[in-house]
Design brief:
By secondary structure, the chain is of the alpha+beta class. It is built from six helices and 16 strands. The relative contact order is 0.26. This is Taurine dioxygenase.
């Protein structure tokens, strides 16, 4: 299937390491096409030994779409499209400690994200991704029927108000289907986000809470997961439409540092 890159699957369901490509240089159209195909096949793909600068990072991202500004995290100086991802001995929290997909609160949630880490702790600091195709397919048929047509509200306000205490600022809040059809693969996936979902629409508060708890536990099932152990100058590129991820903060007081760009997506559909 792949002639211009090498692809090594990490698990039977999700994740693959990509080699034979230099992300610090411009990519050829054949490489871009095969990287996109690998992303669609595996949900998240990983690259090693890629000492990217900011321009390299943005150039690579733009091979796959338009880059967007994060509505809740400020960009770094001179590069508003790049967000710093950093944890050290002075950190009181780190980004991504709860299972989530990025910015599902947006009217058009991101297509994907690309994270580059230049500095990692000697041990720890892994990231987990979970396959939401498999999470949907593992549901009983009665639950699939129940979720069909159901929507949930994805609200960023409680997340960023707690971080920044800027209670007068309004962050994105939007309703999305709980089960979506991926716009490129055509497969059904769960589109539920424990970090942003405030409630499910059209059901009672008690039913909404029970459903939230059930889906939170179900989507975190280890059968759907891949675990990536970072090394310096590693890159992860994930499809935000069909994966969840979780950053493990088990390396305090060591430093874990890098940068992320986010790719524009479209409104999810049933």
């Amino acid at each position: 299937m792949y002639r211009h890159i090498q692809v090594s699957p990490c698990t039977a369901r999700i994740g693959a390491e990509i080699s034979g490509v230099d992300l610090t240089a411009a990519l050829g159209p054949e490489q871009v096409e095969e990287i996109r195909r690998a992303l669609l096949q595996f949900g998240v793909i990983f690259f090693r030994d890629q000492p990217m600068g900011h321009e390299d990072h943005m150039r690579f991202g733009r091979c796959f779409g338009e880059l967007i500004v994060h509505p809740g995290a400020p960009g770094i100086e001179g590069f508003p499209l790049i967000v710093a991802i950093h944890g050290d001995a002075n950190s009181t929290y780190v980004a991504g400690e709860q299972w989530h997909s990025d910015l599902s609160c947006n009217a058009e949630p991101p297509m994907g994200s690309i994270l580059y880490l230049h500095t990692v702790p000697p041990v720890g600091g892994d990231t987990l991704w979970a396959d939401m195709y498999s999470a949907y397919e593992a549901l009983p048929e009665r639950m699939k029927a129940y979720l069909d047509g159901l929507t949930a509200q994805h609200d960023a306000n409680h997340v960023y108000h707690a971080l920044y205490h800027d209670y007068d600022k309004a962050y994105p809040r939007n309703d999305h289907p709980v089960v979506i059809t991926h716009p490129e693969s055509g497969r059904k996936a769960l589109f539920f986000n424990p970090q942003y979902v405030s409630h499910f629409n059209g059901v009672s508060d008690a039913e909404s809470r029970m459903l939230y708890d059930f889906l939170t536990a179900h989507c975190a099932d280890a059968r759907f997961q891949v675990r990536f152990r970072w090394r310096p100058h590693s890159v992860a590129f994930w499809d935000n439409r069909c994966t969840h991820h979780l950053a493990i903060w088990d390396y305090y007081p060591q430093t874990r540092s890098g940068f992320r760009v986010t790719l524009k997506g479209e409104r999810p559909t049933f």
